[in-house]
Design brief:
The structure holds two protein chains of two kinds. Chain A has helices at residues 2-8, 10-26, 40-57, 69-81, 97-105, 167-176, 189-201, 217-231, 246-254, 267-275, 307-317, 320-327, 345-352, 377-391; strands at 30-36, 60-66, 92-95, 133-134, 137-138, 144-150, 152-156, 260-263, 282-285, 291-299, 371-373. Chain A is globular, with a radius of gyration of 22 Å. In chain A, a hairpin with a 2-residue loop joins strand 4 (133-134) and strand 5 (137-138). Chain A contains 14 helices and eleven strands. Helices cover 41% and strands 14% of the residues of chain A. Chain A folds into two domains: 2-148 and 294-352, Periplasmic binding protein-like II (D-Maltodextrin-Binding Protein, domain 2); 150-292 and 369-391, Periplasmic binding protein-like II (D-Maltodextrin-Binding Protein, domain 2), CATH 3.40.190.10. By secondary structure, chain A is α/β, with parallel strands linked by helices. The termini of chain A are far apart. By secondary structure, chain B is mostly helical. Chain B has a two-stranded antiparallel sheet with strand order 1-2. The chains are: A alpha/beta, B mainly alpha. At the A-B interface, strand 1, helix 3, strand 2, helix 4 and helix 5 of A face helix 3, helix 15, helix 18, helix 24 and helix 25 of B.
Amino acid sequence: MITALAAATPGVRAAEPAWSEWLRRARGQQVYFNVWAGDEAVNRYVTWTVAEVRRTFGIELVHVKINDVAEAVARVLAERAAGRDRDGTIDLLWLNGENFAALRQADLLYGPWADEVPNARWIDRAGNPTTVTDFTLPTAGYELAWGTSRFTLFYDSARIRTPPRDSAALLAWLRANPGRFTYPQPPQFHGTSFLKQLLLAEYTDRARFAAAVGGDFATLSAPLWRWLDAAHASMWRSGRNFPASGPAQRRLLGDGEVDWAVAFNSAEASRSIQSGEFPQSIRSVRFRAGALANSHFLGIPYNARSVAGAKVVANFLLSPAAQARKGDERYWGDATVLDIERLPAADRAAFAALRPGPATLPASGPGAGGVIDEPHPSWTIAIEREWLRRYRAG
Amino acid sequence: MTKRALLAAVLLLVLLPVAVGLGGTILPALSSEPWRELFATPGLARAITLTLFTGIASAVISLGLAHLLLAVYSARLARERLRAAMLPLLATPHLALAIGVALLLAPSGWLLRALSPWLTGFTQPPDWATIQDPWGLSLVLGLVLKETPFLVLALGSALTQVPSERLMLQARTLGYRPFKSWCVAVAPLLQRQIRLPFAAVVAFGLGNVDVAIALGPSNPPTLAILLWQWFTDPDLSRRALAAAGAVMLTGLTALALWALHALAARVRRLWLRHATSGRRHDSTVAATLFANSIGALLLATGLLALIALVLRSLARAWRFPEFLPRSIDMNSWSNALATLTPALEGSVGLALLTAFVALLVSLWAAETLRPLPQWRTRLAALLFVPLIVPQFGFLYGLQVALSALRIEGTWTAMLLTHLLFVLPYVFAFVVAAHTALDARLPIVARSLGASPTATFAKVTLPLLARTSLQALALGFAVSLALLLPSLFAGAGRFITFATEAAATMTSGSLRSAAVYGSAQALLPLLGFAAAALAGALVFRRRAGVPA
């Protein structure tokens, strides 16, 4: 019986000794983990991870804070250009979307590895397809899903009783409340996401956006530019200057300079209420037509020095315990990519014990509202280019 | 002969990286494609205008203010007081001060909180562009805050090269009032002495990222910020575009320096006419009043910005228009502790090491070149090259070279790169003090039979003890402030307070940025305080020894 099972699932048996080998090699390794540093909660979570993997696996995880994942991508590209094909400066990288596309296109990611780490079996591939399709590109084992999110707007419910949930209503609100709305400046990630959310919500059939951008870009994107042309004059600083990033705009909301902020994780609002950065009245809302949904991943550059250590850390980050802690708003509040129903009872309980705050909306499942799939990465680039061409004062 | 060889080595240490870096930056910009892309950049014309305006305006205003302040505080004691007052501004790194100024002047900043709602009626911040204004005025203010004290220091050092007392006496004898005497007799000579530091101020003003990320507009930003974005873009073709942009920034800097040089000649002629008009009277009272108000304003802005910075790093809930945070905690500091530790090792260790190496090189070069004053001047000028070439112009090429040598992100790479920027300051400081030494003292020692080495060790060095300590503190402060050199040479692996503050600032985490900024601002002050304390201890039993 046992022999029969083992024969039926050869991958499992073959993977077991291999994983212990990775664990053995990882011990004592230094792993440079490049992480976007814009969120204190994320920084804290990584700090916790550093201590955990040192204690459990003997790995020295080095937290490298970056402003933009693009910087790390640029570094890998520069190392390739300089012929540094081994002993690269990055071992593990938090990424998704266009950065994944850029690295995959240049064949600068190690892999496939992500489907082989033990905890990958708990990933909710069926229920949350964004965990295996990153902005329309199949992950193909070159990155490991880490967290999942949906585009959300934060607003001050003390000023806005019924928040607008489509672009027309938002425009009407803007005109009635000039100077109180803005969005992060594209090509910053949150800013571009806002543009994509606006554009894609205008269409009910979004199949065209899953393919690469083409000659029809001008026609298809026209509603977005019409809306922005109409809205900018009523925005913060009359639409002439924009906050540098999502967190920068959240600070503006916290300081009362604006009434809105954009984010991918609604738990951030609850957390900010808890920490006192936001007033109690901040709430989250998503567009009626659906919310842009995506997952974020962990990748290993092709020239990483400590591949074993990177894999072990990635597997740890995907463990139910680490994912449950990540889902806890006291620490971070990022939604899990695991299929909780399939987990052992003890691990399920850890997720059941999570208490979302007043501004948190579910990130997946029936309560999360409709989903808008991310468009092909070429749309992102085309929208960013066009935005700069139109709205950078020349 | 060996002296020459060693001097050549020093120059090589400084000029070779700049030359290699410039080459490495220009190389990818040689084809026409990146230039076409550069000129097609949306908003480029406005970015260039903004860069030129903020860079030149801040440099010229700072220079004018520095001259005015020194003219009013020309007496030795007053000058000492001025220098002490300027020290906090001087010691605070650009980035930290810029973040502080943003926290002070933003619509939700401390200033408007102080006036709201009792005076302004605001219960929510107004939609005013008090920082990041499209014209770059807040950026100019941020730069002036930092560059004025620097130029005051440079002018003060230049005084040792100018027979100011004799000149003042002559002018006074001819019946000129003190302020005008200074303006016509001393200031023009001083100006000749500080051409290099002034050029460095212009180059920094045009090419800085440190101040522009906190106070500059974003749409479009200055050319330097565009370059920063391009250099970090995942799209490889952007590297060539960035390189072309860096070449353009270098060209613009050269153009600005040339234009200012030409302008200076014209100003000199006008000045001469003014000086020889025969009028002896001046507006001492008005000038003093103006200088005092400006000086106080600069100082107050700087100090309030620093307090706002520290407060923000401690504030938990701080809603507009509350003047003080409702609650404070050390969360951000304790959260940052994990990264503060590597930053402490990185920043402080590196800064100490760099300052120490720079001091040794400077002391040795100053002593070796004692008989050759014109060489000393030439060396000082050449050492300034890395400060006058825009940082973007050679740092990218340098990074490529360091990467090819596989030493980017190492202590060696960081030390070499930081020395480029620390050495000119430390050398200028040490040489000024060395020149001011009573030349007869070593001669007496030699005539009593002491060897040159013994003379240096037993006579010159003790006399330079306080200078050396201050030079260490200066080198320490300069190194701590370096942002782009740390980013490029550190390959993101070398954590310093500057890189952490910039990373958290641009990603919007202001409270964390305030933590790193505060740490970055307090350390140089501690450095100067330690130098003063150690100096006092060293000279405790040497009352009357000039230093």
